[in-house]
Amino acid sequence: MARAGLSHDIVVAEAAAVADEIGWERLNLALIAERLGVKLPSLYKHIASLDGLRRDLAVIGTRELADVLSASAVGRARTDALHAVAKAYRRFALEHPGRYAATVRAPASDDLEHGEAADSVLRIVFAVLAGYGLAGDDVIDATRSLRAGLHGFVALEAGGGFAIARDVESSFNRLIEAFDSAFASWANSIYGSPASVAREHVEWPK
To answer: pTM here?
Structure first.
């Protein structure tokens, strides 16, 4: 029998904690069952599979990321908003590595719940970039570039890739300053076009 009080939400919450502790790739149902003090079959009363649980973690992680990004951007615009959102993104990734890794998972085309969570993050980023006058193809390119830069930085930092004797915080700030300068000039770039942002263009946090 499943442990009294065990629920889908409890299983997902425990899985999130385990993923943060041991890593997204090492997440497994046996360990979650052990942590919850139940036999493995008991978990299947609340989840369908490990892949289904990973999907649920992606939704939870993406919502949490959206919350911290939204809170960081309140009352800020353009440069201040960009720095605040970037720092919040980095902080979330370093403090919750398992949940952050889950946010990289792309929503299935028919998964409305996951898609809505991803869109909530995207709307925050688009709002920040709108402060630079970016729209259409420009805002898509800027979103992809920003995501690639932030993800690459935090992945290297978390993996111990910055061994040179230089303050990492200073390097991160200069990265965002570079994005700030680039985005300020993109509205007048020859590469931009007034294409509308359709649902299939959602790139963050895929």
So the answer is: 0.86
